[in-house]
C-alpha cells in the first residue's frame, strides 16, 4: 500500500504536525502496512497469548494522594499564562475545520 504526497500532507495537517518535503520523500509508510499484512499470514492458532496485567489478576496499588494540591506548581509550567488564574492550561484553537 502506498500513499501520495498529498495524502501524507493532509494526514500531517489533521494531526497537527509539520513535515518538510524532504521528510515526506523519505517516508515509506506503506512499508508498515505491508509488514502488518505479512504478520497476518502467521498461524497463531496454537500460540498462547502473553500475559497482560489488564487481563490478569495483578495486584493493584491503592489510589492514595501522596502530594496534595500541586495545581499551582503544575500550572507554573504553562507556556501561556492566560488560563493559569482560572486553573487551566490555555492551548491554541485546533478545531477550525
Itemize the secondary structure elements and their pairings.
Blueprint: H1 5-14, H2 21-26, H3 29-40, H4 71-75
Describe this structure in words.
This protein starts with a helix and ends in a 22-residue tail after the last helix. The longest helix is centred in the middle third of the chain and has 12 residues, at 29-40. The mean pLDDT is 84. It has 97 residues and is mostly helical. The radius of gyration is 23 Å and the shape is flat. It contains 4 helices and no strands.
- Report strand %: under 5%
- The helicity comes to 25-40%
Number of strands: 0
Alpha-carbon Rg, integer: 23 Å
How far apart the termini lie comes to: 28 Å
Quick one: overall form? flat
Low-confidence stretches: none
- Output the structural class: mainly alpha
Chain-averaged pLDDT = 84
Main sheet overview? none
Number of helices: 4
Based on the model shown, name its key terms.
single chain, about 100 residues, mainly alpha, 4 helices, about 0% strand, flat
